[in-house]
Amino acid sequence: MGLCFPCPGESAPPSPDLEEKRAKLAEAAERRQKEAASRGILDVQSVEQKRKKKEKIEKQIATSGPPPEGGLRVAPKGLPTIN
């Protein structure tokens, strides 16, 4: 059977520096996030470009303000409406 503790004459292996350990954990977390974000996506760059374009359009809409006439189009009287 295995032993849980080192022999009395042996010293425990040195633990890594706290800052070094934090840096490695941060790198691993970033790597996992990238992998999770690109899971199931064949062309990551294309998806990123589309996302940026969508954000740009949404920002333009937000800064342009509301449409001048409320944004609804009403058919003039006498013309058929599409249902």
From TrEMBL:
Disordered: region residues: 1-83
Compositionally biased intervals (Basic and acidic residues): 18-37
Lipoprotein keyword on record: yes
Keywords of the record: Lipoprotein, Myristate, Palmitate
UniProt xrefs under Pfam families: SVIP (PF15811)
Record-given protein name: Small VCP interacting protein
Protein species of origin: Equus caballus (Horse)
